[in-house]
Amino acid sequence: MTVTTQNLLKYLPIDDKIRQETLVKLAGYSPQQKISLDETLWLMVHELLMVQSQYEFELALLEIEKGKGEMDNQLYPRIKEQVYMRFLRDIAENKEAESIEDIRLSLQKLIKKNTGKQTVKKTN
Question: Any idea where the domains of the chain sit in the sequence?
Fold first, then answer.
């Protein structure tokens, strides 16, 4: 799966105004600006995933402390993988939703275009 700059901008918890401005201006960025933006976004994703993994690990430890689970040496790696897989799923779902929306908009344009050109014949 290819993850684009646009996907990352839509996934990350960024102020909506900044997100929209960046998405609009993205096409005019130089190659170096795009690389710099991509690096920054991927660093943000990495930090977000690490913080989420740590948070979920601490929750798991609390559950173990309450006797609702067992500690093993694969607990943290397993949680990290779950967080990463959830990130990939969320990105894929976002891309799928965008694709469906693009198809819907294209169909609406096509219907609008064809409705204006065709006349309906009534049969009795």
Answer: 5-115
